[in-house]
Amino acid sequence: MKIMSYPSEAKTDRSLSLIVLFAGTLFISASLMFALQPLFGKILLPLLGGSPAVWNTCMVFYQSILFLGYLYAHAISTRFNQHRQIQIHAVIILISFLALPVALPENTAPPTESDPTFWLLWTLFLAIGLPYFVVSTTAPLIQKWFANVGHHTSHDPYYLYAASNTGSLIALLSYPFLLEPAIGLANQKTYWSIGYIILCLLIAGCAFVLWKTRQNTVIVQDISLKENNLGLYRKLRWMALAFVPSSLLLGLTNFISTDIASVPLLWIIPLTLYLLSFVIVFSKWNDRIHPLMVRLQPVVLLPFIAYAFINPADLPYWAYLCLHLLAFFFAVMVCHGELAKDRPHTRYLTTFYLIMSFAGMLGGMFNTFVAPFIFNGIYEYPIMIVAALLLRPGTVLSLNKGLLLQIIAPALLVIAGLVLYTSGMELLQYFDLIVISLIALTFLTYLLRRRPVAYALLTGAIIFLSLGLHGLSSHTLYQERTFFGVLAVRESILTDEHNQPEKYHELFHGTTKHGAQRLAANLARIPLTYYSRPGPMGQLFKEFDNNNKNWKIGIVGLGAGALACYAKSTQDWTLYEIDPLVVDIANNTDYFSYLKLCAHKTTMRIGDARLSLEKEPDQKFDLLVLDAFSSDSVPTHLLTQEALELYFKKLKPGGILAFHITNRHLLLKKVLSIHAEHLHLAALIQEFKPQQNIPLVVATDWVVMAKNPETLAPLSLSRLGNWHKMPLYFDMKPWTDDFTNIVSIWK
Question: What does pTM read for this prediction?
Fold first, then answer.
């Protein structure tokens, strides 16, 4: 026990108005914070090709500024008296007004030849750094002030954190369903700036209440020994419990946004669950809910382990997504529940939040700066699932016989897998047996749920053995990870017309095939998959074969380079690709030889297509092909009205725009149909399905557009394919750079 000085609480205030003022300030602050995140993510996406890494990098920035805000709140609340805290904070707020209204710096453009991560962080700092810093200081500082205003609940202000996270949740859910569909980006920036001024007035109100609080102190006994014991182990445990959910958040976000679309709606789903966990665990219900979460987590993980990594093809995408979201939610609920259980006395409130924010920042930095350089796939995601299981209550890591026994089963499983892999056995002939065995082992994990080390390590062994098995079965020749995603070249086998096995190569971005090539010399020039000769692209080039001898053609999105095999020696082709690694793969004849065999007069442009096209002369192209995908999603900034106006500005009066819109989840033809109506363009669509079983010819959807119907008449009149007019839609506004709404085109 020690004797300490604390503000007098002889007279406690029971007024509801104090709670309303302080909780309202936290609510508005959190709402502004989490409205700004998707807002600026959406503003920056067009500059970087719609890559999901844009959001992850933005999250690192937000987490870093949040940490600096918490560090600032901790510093001034522990080193200065209340009056001086108010004075310092007033100066910081006044300086932040220089950044209003929030907007991107003028004439900003990302680098094209290098990783744009640091450019993105610097741009965010210049655009919103100061206001976001002030917003970030609010949660710990206002709660600390509330702890000193003499209210009867001041001894435990953590419940205000639930109000803060409720504001975050409402802002996040409002963005895709209310703000994004109804308000353009320009107005969103203006309204946010107005909201920021309102927040500053509320902070001034809280400061006024604190200023009036008597500064007298009384002598009281120190807090309990446990509360006074902020040892290194306890702080490291707080860090681990905050680090793992933060890393999981970005890992899951990367998974979701890669395979559907890089839009705020989908980024918001895991972030909403993440914030919901804070609302629940810092509420009065956590004592009852947390034990339930701990008991249910192993049940939820059974199907997740059995299917999410072992055999996802057997599930519809929505079920696959739900498994990941459920596993994520239970993992963060258990981690954050443990964090809330161990929260300290209000004397250490800012220290607690500071450690939480620091660990959250480290989690984001690990996913953004470390993982891409040490992993060639999104392996940090399953690693953090295992780490979350290690943090379950009951884990003891002291070296003893019990710990060694818990490690034996996972170690034996890993050793068996390595022995089989290195023994030279043809494992693929036993693929089904191995998969069934791994699924059976998932039930063993459930039996070990009360032994966290054995449970976590066995789960990790199953996940990584199953991932390795799929890598083996897919015959991956090359895999690498960049800012724009994971690229893989795989070797597959098909049976030719003589029932002989024939090898071919495929290019994958994420889980989506972006091209394929047969290897035999007499077949290597044949465009395949979405670009096949029987398909829409083959029909277009065949129909205009007699008058396209001197065409100038632009291709946005390189892939494996298959479209180049439609090129004639007299044509000029310009290829646009945002990811330098795609260019390297397409030029590497060990993987694909389309460019070497077919490309004649071609120019390569690296960088975002819209930014690159801006620099091209007007009326340059006879044909412009839009085939830009990030995994299965088309970057939304390439689908706006301004984008189409740019394309037609670069096309000759009789030029043709061809748009690849094959997509599992989004009805992209709806966006283009509405543009065609508003811009008075002629448009035809073909949703191609191969009539014969031709190897590597796949179903694909293409739209062609022109200023005059006569330009497309040869296609519509030809018998080469089922080209027809676009269907009409009247239930959606045209997409613009200021307005997009992904909800309205969900299939």
Answer: 0.74
